[in-house]
Amino acid sequence: MIPPVASKFVAGESPEEALDHVSSLNDDGIEGMLNLLGEHYGSREPADDDAEAYVDLLDRIQERNLDASISVKPTQLGLDVSSEVFEDNLGRVLDASEDVFVWMDMEGPETVDATLEAFLDRPRDDVGVCLQANMRRTMEDFDRVSDHPGRIRLVKGAYSPPSDVAYTGREVEHAYRNLVDRAFDDGFRPSLALGTHDLDVIEYAEEAVGERDEELEVQMLMGIREPLQRELADSHDVTQYVPYGGRWKSYFYRRIRENPSGALLAARSLLGR
Predict the structure, then answer these.
(1) CB 101, CB 126: distance < 8 Å
(2) pLDDT, tens digit, for every residue of 172-207?
(3) Of these residues, 80, 105, 122, 151, which one is catalytic?
(4) Any catalytic annotation for residue 44?
(5) What are the residue ranges spanned by the domains of the chain?
(6) Active site residue 153
(7) What is the CATH code for 6-271?
(8) What is the pTM of this model?
């Protein structure tokens, strides 16, 4: 059982708990992006198991008619085992997706090429890929996907690659804004979702959209700035990233490191202080 402090950031251990959370989000006009926690498998069995779990999850989303997507990590589907295992499992998931959008998450620098190729090999409107603004190569990657259907989720980047391949500090925000500008250039085909909790960046993107007839989607993590998520849902498409599953501890501790004040507030609430 997930303790109350961790449940601020993780929807539960079972898919049913996660789907119930998404249902409550939908009541507030927010979409859920479900992710079964797991990554960097060194053998095929757990990768196959998680692919099958996603197939089952897709069925449950459709049965309950939820406004939800899923997000899969390439190493969760077996990329560290072999490209063949990854392709097999990704294919299984996409074959089952029907009307549910599938996001491919982006991990460390060593996964970028394989992940991007998997996206480019599938010219579908219902598939998206995450790109990281802190990677120096990302503007070139934007150019590679510029005439491709689907969607791009732009994040600042949670990994810390070496400086020869990544920006640091204020450079990352500058790069993010340049990529937003590129995404709203004429001729850029995929739609953009902003993976950010930074209101200044969101307002910058609103100005970049200007009078264009385009919806601006904002994606945020469960447990981070949730009042803002509900506020933004009045005027934007808002999606909350909803992690769940038995491998919740490492994810939770990562969230504490990134957001210690939020974890402290949750603990104080639990203790009634």
Answers:
(1) yes
(2) 999 999 999 999 988 899 999 999 999 999 999 999
(3) 105
(4) no
(5) 6-271
(6) yes
(7) 3.20.20.220
(8) 0.91
